Every structure is written in structure tokens, then in C-alpha cells.
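Feature request, filed as a ticket because there's no other form

It would be nice if the structure record came with a short human-readable summary line next to the C-alpha cells. Right now we just get the raw output. Example of a typical job, pasted below so the devs can see what we mean:
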Amino acid sequence: MNSTENVKKITDFSNKSLLIVDDDNPFRERLARAMEKKGFEVSQAEGVKVGIEVVKSKKPAFAVVDLRLDDGNGLEVVKQIQTTNPDSRIIMLTGYGNISTAVAAIKEGAIDYLAKPADADDVEKALLANPNKKPAPPENPMSADRVKWEHIHRVFELCNRNVSETARRLKMHRRTLQRILSKRSPK
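Raw output as currently delivered:
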């Protein structure tokens, strides 16, 4: 089966508005620029409060929402989008992928769930995918080593770059964590 059968083009949609809600400013900016190049009309928000305000004023057809935001849970934004535009296509992003949050996101109206860092091509495919067909597997998935490295660095940043606290939360020895942090990211 050809994977292009599963994906529409942005030109097939009359409303091309996309809302990106993420508190990781560099990631959000990069994704916004990439999605604009792909033909979306992008709005950005860095938290739940601003995201809900944008939803009320613009009623986006598409949305990419981070699950954990500084001022709350991204599911609140998803609920608001579904209230104002039930036909919208919403993708949840998170650095903490687990089954319970994925189920909650889908119940609230998200059509897919991607682990961070997701690239623009994966986001575009997920947003434009035919919801009645099974999505094609990713062409360039992250290696297991890269996923582990990303998770460790995300926890490290959330612990305000405190090695001891990060090691305790990850249940690993502090020196082992220091060695991992000193290495470059795997491919």
C-alpha cells in the first residue's frame, strides 16, 4: 500500500490555520517556521492560557499541543479546540510518552500522539493523515540510544540541570549520569 494514499495535502483544506502550543520556545519556533513553509497559517502560544485565547479568536483547523506546559495541562487546550471546532485535527506532543496520557489525549479529541522531539515531516503526516487508515511507520525513527539520551536530557533540564536530583529521579548513579551528559547525542 502506498503511504501517499493515507495523507492528504494541505491544499485540500480550505482552512489552513495551525495552532502550536508548546513552552519550549526554540522547538516551537522551529516547528512554526517549518510548518509555514509547508503551507500552514501558523499561530503560536507558549501556555494553556494564551493557547485558549488563540483558540477562541481563531478557531484553528489544526493544532499541535504539548501535553505538559508551564501553566497547566495541554489537554485543557484540546478540550477548548474541540468545543470551538469539532472537526479540527489535533496532535499531542510529549516528552513523556505513556499509554494513559495517550488514551486521555485521544478521548479529548486528538487524532495522534507523538513523542518529542518530533520533526516537521512527522507532524505534517500526522495532521494530514486519513483518520480511517492505519498510518505508515516512520521512515527515520530515532534509535533507542537517541530516545534514551533525549529522555535523560529532558529530565536533566526539568531538574534545573541539577545532576544529583536528576540521578535520583532516574534511579541511576550520579557518576554514570555525568558520563552520559558529557557525551554527544547519538544518531
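Something like this underneath would help us a lot:
Residues 2 and 136 are 9 Å apart (CA to CA).
The chain is about 45% helix and 15% strand.
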